[in-house]
Predict the 3D structure of the following.
Amino acid sequence: MELDIKDLHVATVDGKEIVKGVNLKVKSGEFHVIMGPNGSGKTTLAKAIMGHPGFKITKGNIFVDGKSITSLTPDKRAKLGLFLQFQNPVEIEGVGFVNFLRAARESITDNTVDIKQFMGEVRSYTEKLAITNGIVGRTLNHGFSGGEKKKGEILQMAVLRPAISILDEPDSGLDIDAIKVVASNVNDIMKDHGMGAIVITHYSRILSYMKPQRVHVMHDGKIVAEGGKELILKLEKDGYESVIKDKE
Amino acid sequence: MAEDLKAILEQQNSEYRDMYGFSDDIDYDFKTDKGLSEKIVREISKIKKEPEWMTEKRLAGYRVFTSKPLPKWGPDLSGIDFNDVYYYLKPSDKPKADAWDKVPEEIKRTFDKLGIPEAERKFFAGAEIQYDSEVVYGKVRKDLEKQGVIFTDMDNAIKKYPEMVKKYFGTVIPPTDNKFAALNTAVFSGGSFIYVPKGVKVALPLQAYFRINAEKAGQFERTLIIADEGADVTYIEGCLPAEELVSKGDSFQMIGSIKKGDKVATHTGKIQKVNKKFVHKHNGIMFEIVPQSKGNGFRLTGEHPVLCIKRNRVLTKRKQRINWNPEVSTKALLEQNPEFVKAENLEEGDFIVYVAPTSIEDDPTFGPIELKILGLYLAEGSITSNKALGGIRNIAFSFGKSKKEEALANEVNSLIHKKGWKSTTCRTKGGYYVVSSYAKDLIELCETNCGKGAKTKLLSQKLMMLPPLKQKLLIDYYWKGDGNIYLRYGKKLMRASTASKFLSYQIQEIMARNGVFANLNVRPGSEDVILGRKIVRSDQYIIEYTDERKMGEVRRKNNCFYVPIKQIKKHQFNDFVYNFGVDKDESYLVKGFAVHNCTAPIYMSSSLHAAVVELVAHKDAHIRYVTIQNWSKNVYNLVTQRAFVYRDACVEWIDGNIGSRINMKYPSTYLKEEGAKGEILSVAVAGDGQIQDSGGKVYHLAPNTSSKIISKSISKGTGVASYRGLLYVGKEAANAKSTVRCDALLLDEKSKTNTYPYMQVYREDANITHEASVGKIGEEQLFYLMSRGMSEEDAIATIVLGFIDSFAKTLPLEYSLELKRLIKLDTSNSVG
């Protein structure tokens, strides 16, 4: 699968432009990183790609394998193979996590799930993700700790097997051990299923456990710098200011 | 039948009637006149052979009813016309049925829908069913009976346990309580009477089902449950649960499968797109219109307009002949323009309009040879695959023994050869002629255009769109194979029969496109034992037509045929019905006949359900009362439920309200002695046009009593869900504890919710918490679920089900599943 974002402009429903012309091309198996200071439009970009109703595309287009997806509802986009790991997943009262996961898998694959096999799969991922409290029997993100929420998102990603995944701050609020676990699980899913990834983050720490191929720096709704892994080192040393200034 | 029943009743000395059968056709043994008077109240009591004291109670109730005004608070009830209600209906024709297996099929189906046999066999301890006013099914497990548990209907209880009934009846809810409790006292019929003796714990729930069967009928059941010291019982009351979306084996299955965007033929004969599909539950009369061609009979609701010419407009001026029905003038008939008339206004003899679709799409791949082969295949062909030969497929045309059949066999053989395919003709030992071939192209031609087995033969869309003359050729060859010629009344009648229902309609349609109206009849299948072997004959669809004279009174005008109605039957119906919006013409064909898109309001007349439920929980007893109410949306559900709870006893009300037009129900609990406990847990779903006014009342009347009220409501569209609750803590109720929590969920911008929490607290030491919340389905929640691949509809349903999950968990599994299914259905966008 190829995700091709062309000159994308995104505004809130009341007209405030947040993303101001982004170009980005990502294929399955590729590993991209978007970094940038708070408020640069990273999360809005991620939500717009997934089809959040609170944002409008005012210019430009998003293509999947050459076809525009901007008129598709989020569920259709998910079915094409896109996945968004939420920075702050919402809590939904009374909805069992595993039941939800099964329903999601069934709607994405249009196939019924063999419960026994599925439960086995879920269990093996909870072990890998070191989700100690157990997720079975709990309601969706309800009463989850920050770390559990993030791990729960990665678990969903593992089970739903997207072709390209957007991970919006998979590291925020996690301790070092948890960051390592999340990173190695994302690496494994990419390796095992050839998933492509766009990781959005402020900090380089999680990236030291991963092998990003391409780094994009976003500022004020635009991508202001691009490069390989070396760009991360530069940012770490000199901060965002340096890159942004370079551009200006 | 009635005699049989009496005989059986007399034979049985058991306290409980075993199972009785029921009739789905409404022949009521007895039906009071509409409206209410002292005379009718007396009449009801007399029919039930009640003792004088009960008659007096009824009359007292009636007097209160007439003197009390409608409640001045809450939803508007002025739409109830008390004079337009049948207050008592007694179903007649109860065939004997001493075991479930012997209950007639028709009735079983109704109850299968209610999930009775399964529930009864597998899980529940007993069940009663109230069918309109009478309880017609009751059973309690033998072991409970031995322990002295009484579970019977109220009418029976008055006869068998008069002392107990006298002692408790109307003590918890006196007729003076409210207008509807008074009405119930005056006219009640059926309902359950339960007595659980000291210390007996009934492990499995006792349950009852109630239905309102007739339109404009009232249902006034009276339930009284007494749990003696230390007793424990759960009672479940289901109002119309578990129904299949599509009724089987009739046209509704076909209609049910039509989707938005599909193309259908309209009354003009043109093909138009379906732009909307409505599904709603219809509980009431269903009209079955049986035209001259009986196989075309179809069913619809009374509101549904049908294209029609009224007979009385087209009569001859000639004097009516003796013993003849008024005759119709063909000239007048053909001059009259058909109009859409509501099904309930149709009369036998009126003409309805069979429309032959006019759209044509020629396909040159079908030449005379192909059409002839297909016609004969339709009549005589079959495709089989030979396992021994690795699944190789073979097509065979089987003919009879006669010369004529031999000629046909030779003809098909030569047709196949003309196409360059191979085939052979042979004669079986019995002398039958069989043409068989392995030619793949031939097999594919036949299979894709005509189907495979006898029951599933079906013409392809392509064939159905061919020009009429081409189709005629196909049908001519079909008649050659399957047709017979009969002579009747000097008329030459062509006749063929097939096991494929759909094929018979298709042939009829093709004949109509060729200007000939064919009659369709159904010969029902049967089972037989011949020489010890079980033979099953499937339904046969018989197609008849004549070229020579007109088929009965049927007359043709262009592509329309005016067909007289032979019979109009009325059925009780409680299931889903379908309706479509269709581009341009706003009409569609049901079994060939034109009907309009039904624009009338779904329910015109309303039904009234005014039950009274009295519970008495003596010292240390526990009663759990569960109601899942899914009345159809024309029912006023005005139920009074109240419990007296004595020392250290506990009563739980669990109340699910999904159906009805206006629902007013506030289960109440009187904590009368020290340590008494009460819980009220309710869920209400207010869909479009519904008002759910529910909640609960608790009176703390003694020290150390505690209570909990939890209410959850969901409103959608124009639906209004309101919580109305009362918490009373009297001076004598030291250390009362109470928690009240009400949560409301709004599904869209239009929907509304109200909260009216009343509190009267006369104690300083009372410990009371009250929480209320109103939530909207959040954009973020929807986006989250949809980003995981769920459709918007599924996402909404998921959120709603999550919202009521804590409630659903208190129900037995089957009810919990049923509630979830109902709510899912109610919140989904596709339900109109």
In short: The interface with chain B takes residues 47, 50-54, 73-75, 77-79, 83-84, 86, 89-90, 92-95, 100, 103-105, 107-108, 139-140, 156, 160 of chain A (CB under 8 Å). DSSP finds seven helices and ten strands in chain A. The helical segments of chain A are 42-50, 74-80, 97-109, 115-128, 146-160, 176-193, 230-247.
